[in-house]
Amino acid sequence: MSSLMLEEAQSAADAVAAQHMYADERLSMLGRLLVQRPPQMALTVARGSSDHAASYFAYLAMQRQGLPVVSLPMSLVTLHHAPLAVNGQLAIGLSQSGQSPDLVETMSALGRAGAVTVAMVNQNESPLGDCCEWVVPLCAGPEKSVAATKSYIASLSAVARLVAHWQGDKALLSALDSLPQRLVEAAKQDWSRAIDVLAPLDRIMVVGRGLGFPVALESALKFKETCALQAEAFSSAEIRHGPMELIDKGYTLLIYAPRSPEQAGLIALAREMRDRGANVLLAAPQDVAERELTLSTADDEVLDPLLAIQSFYLMAAQLSEARGMNPDQPRHLSKVTRTV
Question: Percentage of the chain surpassing pLDDT 90?
Answer without folding.
Answer: 87
